[in-house]
Amino acid sequence: MTETVVGTPAPQPVTTAPGKALGNAPARARNSGGRLRALDGLRLLAALMVALYHYGGRGGEISEAWGSSAKTQFPTLHSWFAYGCLGVQIFFVISGFVICMSGWGRPLRSFFASRVSRLMPSYWVAVVLVTAVFALPVVAYEAVSPSDALLNLTLLQQPLGADRVLGVCWTLWVEVRFYALFALCVVLPGASRRRVVLFCVVWTMAAAIADAADQPLLDLVLMPEYAPFFIGGIGIYLLYRDRRDVTAWGIVAISWLTGQHYAVAELWHPPGPGHFSYRSAYVIIAIVTFGFVAVLAVALGRLRRADWRWLTVAGALTYPFYLVHEHLGWVAVETFHRHLGLPSYATLAATLACMLFLAWLFNRFVERRATPLLRDALSREVPDRVR
């Protein structure tokens, strides 16, 4: 589920002395080249939670890969793996934080170029790769139609009703709608504390009204079940700028209260035979609380000692890992477990290792090369004579 699937890529978050009124500190911080490395580690943790859910916390195609239900493969841990889907909510809190950081003081063209260049190169390659692998005769999983595969390259497959190449791309559609709301309401007129607070307050109220109105269009635009997590992350960024901001504390508190409500309502007893039912409401609340508290701890500098360089690598691997882990994980699990005879836990470890290695290849050969080229191309002003 990154800047979080739900896991979209983070825009190089950075650190100064958090917890004080920073003024233009985020601009100075970008120049310093530092990172909030603990946030990178949290992103990878959320991605691994989602992967454990997909491999051992639900049914569906993964049961075909194992040859039996994940309940059988992990008789003790399957019920805990079922909570891994909450990694998506943690991603959304992180996304609210880093998108507000990324968009503050940035013109709309630059913000658009940053988001597209970080989101799309790995996504395009992942769509092509998964489509190609599923088209192989030796792979038991059915590929989507050529027309739907091409439509998937636009990230508009879900609203247009096409089959999805990547199961996790629904979270990217949520992220894209958040980017659009934030760009129109904050980045375009120019980010300021007052405007960001107004955005958070209005979105919170509008999302609640949309939920009560039960109108599909309002739900599509305002995303009431996910809005609290993005808004909570934005409020945490305001606290990163000034921990004394009482209004920001209120935004975070209300977002946590409404966010846990939606998480419990949606996940306590999820519909469908492919899910393990009856998650504990207390555990759901605890995990949502952990997500808010962990991002808040990073923002307030409580985790500044977690400044290990390997966390930067972890953050770089998160988005491509999130993209490829589910569908290609089915193929890996079937290969390791049913064809090579590895036991369940060894198969789980080997599959995670393979997906992380593939994510490293994506970062090394796709993101590092394509992202700056696409960003520069989209940032370039078109001369008047060409218009």
How would you summarize this macromolecular structure in one to three sentences?
This protein is mainly α.
Polypeptide structure, described:
This protein has 387 residues and is an all-alpha fold. It contains 16 helices and no strands. It has helices at 25-32, 37-56, 61-66, 70-73, 78-81, 87-103, 108-134, 146-152, 169-187, 193-213, 216-222, 227-241, 246-267, 281-299, 310-339, 344-379. The longest helix has 36 residues, at 344-379. It is globular. Mean pLDDT is 89; it is low at 1-5 and 10-33.
Mean pLDDT: 89
Q: Are there runs of 5+ residues with pLDDT below 50, and where? A: 1-5, 10-33
Count every beta strand, where a strand is a DSSP E run of 2 or more residues. 0
Order of helices and strands: HHHHHHHHHHHHHHHH
Range of helix content = 55-70%
Please report the number of helical segments: 16
Rg over CA atoms: 21 Å
Q: Structural class, from secondary structure content? A: mainly alpha
Give the CA-based shape: globular
- Please give the largest β-sheet: none
Separation, N- and C-terminal Cα atoms: 39 Å
Strand content: under 5%
